Amino acid sequence: MLTEIREGWGGILTSVASRNPRWKRSYALIWTNAAAARFLSEIAPHLRVKSKQAATLFQFLRHLRTCRRRRDRYGRLLPLSNRQQRIREAFYRRLKNLNMKGPTQAQRRQRVSAESRQLPIPSAAYLAGFIDAEGSVRLTKNHFPGWNPQYGARVQVCNTNRIVLEDLRRTFGGVITYQPRRSVRWKDSYQLVWTGRRVEPLLRAVEPHLRLKRRNARIVKQFIEHRKRTHQGRAGRFFGHLPKQVIAYREDLYQRMKKLNAKGPPAPGAMK
Fold first, then answer.
1. Spatial separation of the C-alpha atoms in residues 192 and 138, rounded to whole Å
2. What pTM did the predictor assign?
3. 268: DSSP letter
């Protein structure tokens, strides 16, 4: 995925060591200096969660263009003045505060700023990118003794910015839940969740734009179509037991989804 992005927008692709041997290897696509400025100018109008970071970087770049560095008679750059050092340190601190993992005063207030109200309505393509990066598409399973295993479809996105999730909910529905931080160094987070009948119309909208989660979406659609075709009889006031072949088919879909969503590297030949 990152290789495809690099072909269109450049950047340097690097491998990032995993912090846990049970996790998959990860990669980073990086833009710096002039390349970062060009890339940011193209994507900034579409940013929502990182819009303030982008605006701060643009201010810093404009400052750099107006700040001419002086050289000595041998052409060597002279040290920055104390004033310039303070200005650049202020930009650095501002971005560090925006990117901090812990709770901030702005998050505790959770007010809708004027900037967020001016953002365009999020599109299905934007939500698909959000699901690819910050979400999951999966099947759930609950098993109660003496009863059928209960399978269900679930799509969710998670973020510490509740305002962005509220924008998505107004357009695409879903339910927002609160998720307290697991560490005092982290921010509280929120989940926007679609389950039951909400999943199918959502996948119809976003599946053409999904890339990383496209196979997940197809498995969920198979499950939904199978559930529509399956007639479940009743035993008095309650639903009857499902045939074994129905449970076996849904369990196969569930196990395929479980492999797709595994954190660790897949076993050799597992995804063929």
1. 14
2. 0.80
3. T
